[in-house]
Design brief:
The complex is a heterodimer of chains A (107) and B (403). Chain A has 3 helices and 4 strands; from the N terminus they run αβαββαβ. Chain B folds into 2 domains: 244 residues, Thiamin diphosphate (ThDP)-binding fold, Pyr/PP domains (Rossmann fold), CATH 3.40.50; 142 residues, Rossmann fold. Chain B has a 7-stranded mixed β-sheet, with helices on both faces. The radius of gyration of chain B is 21 Å and the shape is globular. Classes of the chains: A alpha+beta (107), B alpha/beta (403). The interface between A and B is medium-sized, with 18 and 23 residues.
């Protein structure tokens, strides 16, 4: 019941079809950035920065890509963006020195 | 009606379509040729090669890609055209929905042909009727002149900001596509101002990025679909408006439907396509015999002008619907279903009969229409022994029908 009420409230804020642009066009770019797409992750990759050599392989292999490059880094050059990481594990598999471990997600 | 001296050419239906495409200065034509519409792409290819049409002709690997290419080109603001029929139209099916939902003004000519199996290249309306819920404007024509005029009108209607929907111009395969008739064509100077170039309300442009074809989750999908469906219903007004302007400028118009000897008619047959030309002749002959019969030729099938049609049909004593398509396992053929709903909603209770004829190119003769009218006459008197759904020209039924 709580969930249903939530839906009604959210729907009330959304536009009627008359107020929507024709063809369901989204006229402002970048609307996808507002959507976080990592909710289905089961295993979370954790980089051990004591081992990491900044070789960039995780960044190369990430299919998302959810690995960001930092220029002003102290701890590590490559940082995982957990808003978009789906936990596929390719980075952990490809890391040449096994600095990335997959840890089960805590809810 | 103004009589204007016109340039008269002998054109087949296919050539008339290609000629209209050339005059409309279409930017992108994407085709995968299929009988009986092949000659359209051949002719356009010739125009492009000779430099008469300054446009791109894309030869793609399937009809599915042909329409997809058209959608892409239309989305960046180009004027687009494609042509197909039968199996090709069926392969396009899923893209038809996308074209209408994205609201891109694609113009497509369809040389109506039956659907396999058995393999058959001849005319019926099964291919078009399969697409009736795809949210496209569907025009059916009766003559080669009409297909030319409707093609010119189609670009104007589709690109109208109040419409922005794809249009399908249906002309009967072989009966119209390959038959040469005299066609009064417009001059390029007349067509250009009738089809002005306008900046589309939205277009794909790297400088001003937009998203076209985004995901519509349950919270948005319904609004998006109903919006497009409503636009189709409302487009009837624009179709009529463009037709009237066409008449004012060039002296020819067709309307949503055409009435033939319907003024005092008691029995009438409603139908679409070139076979209705035969119906007109049958009506003319029956009128000479003193029978009060008429014919109503429906030109615009989608949007369906149910309110206007109810007014036309309410005083009839018996109504027949001739259709060149089946709805297997259903109550009646597609057009009949629409008309029955119309009659019921307006509390019009008249005896009706559904005639299925001319499937897979079987001839529909004047005698066939005479049979239909005499069956309707019997039906009016309550004496008809035929089932509500009657197949005209089917051998087993043919042997039983009265003339």
């Amino acid at each position: 019941m709580k969930r249903l009420l939530w839906r009604v409230d959210e729907m009330a804020k959304m536009p009627n079809m008359e107020d929507m642009p024709i063809g369901f066009v989204i006229s402002k770019a970048g609307s996808t950035c507002k959507i976080k797409t990592a909710s289905w992750r089961t295993f979370k990759p954790i980089i051990d920065y004591n081992k990491c050599t900044d070789c960039s392989w995780c960044w190369v292999y990430c299919p998302e890509p959810a690995i960001e490059v930092r220029t002003d880094f102290k701890k590590g050059k490559y940082v995982i963006n957990y808003d978009y990481c789906k936990g596929c594990g390719i980075c952990a598999e490809e890391c040449p020195i096994k600095a990335i471990t997959m840890v089960k997600e805590e809810i | 009606m103004k009589v204007i001296q016109k340039n008269r050419l002998a054109l087949s239906g296919n050539e008339a379509v290609a000629y209209a495409v050339k005059q409309a200065k279409v930017d992108v034509t994407a085709v995968y040729p299929i009988t009986p519409s092949t000659a359209v792409s051949e002719k356009i290819s010739e125009y492009v090669a000779k430099g008469e049409l300054d446009g791109e002709l894309l030869l793609v690997e399937s009809e599915h890609s042909a329409l997809s290419a058209c959608i892409g080109a239309a989305a960046v603001g180009a004027r687009v055209f494609t042509v197909t029929c039968s199996q090709g139209l069926l392969l396009m099916h899923e893209i038809l929905y996308i074209a209408s939902a994205l609201r891109v003004p694609v113009v497509m000519a369809v040389a109506n042909r039956s659907i396999s199996a058995p393999l058959n290249i001849w005319c019926d309306h099964s291919d078009a009727m399969d697409q009736r819920d795809t949210n496209w404007i569907m025009i059916f024509v009766l003559s080669v002149q009409e297909v030319y005029d409707r093609m010119i009108q189609a670009f104007r209607i589709a690109e109208d900001f109040r419409v922005r929907l794809p249009i399908m111009v249906n002309y009967d395969g072989f009966t119209l596509s390959h038959t040469y008739s005299p066609v009064d064509v417009l001059s390029d100077e007349e067509v250009s101002p009738f089809l002005p170039r306008r900046e589309p309300p939205f277009k794909l442009d790297p400088k001003n990025p937009i998203t076209l074809g985004a995901v519509g989750n349950p919270d948005y999908y319904m609004e998006a679909k109903v919006q497009a469906s409503k636009a189709l219903t409302d487009s009837l007004l624009v179709i009529d408006e463009v037709d009237k302007e066409f008449e004012k400028k060039f002296g020819r118009s067709y309307g949503i439907y055409r009435k033939f000897m319907m003024e005092d008619a008691e029995i009438a047959i409603v139908g679409m396509g070139s076979a209705m030309g035969t119906a007109k002749e049958a009506v003319r002959r029956l009128r000479k015999e003193g029978k009060k019969v008429g014919a109503l030729i429906l030109n615009i099938y989608r949007p369906f002008a149910y309110e206007m049609l109810a007014k036309e049909l309410k005083d009839l004593k018996a109504l027949g619907v001739m259709e060149r398509a089946l709805s297997p396992g259903g109550v009646s053929s597609p057009l009949m279903s629409d008309l029955l709903s119309t009659l019921y909603l307006n509390s019009i209770n008249i005896p009706t009969m559904n005639f299925i004829a001319g499937l897979g190119g079987r001839d529909i003769t004047i005698d066939d229409f005479r049979k239909m009218f005499s069956e309707l006459e019997l039906l009016e008197k309550g004496k008809s022994k035929r089932p509500y759904l009657t197949y005209v020209g089917l051998r087993s039924e043919e042997r039983e029908m009265v003339l």
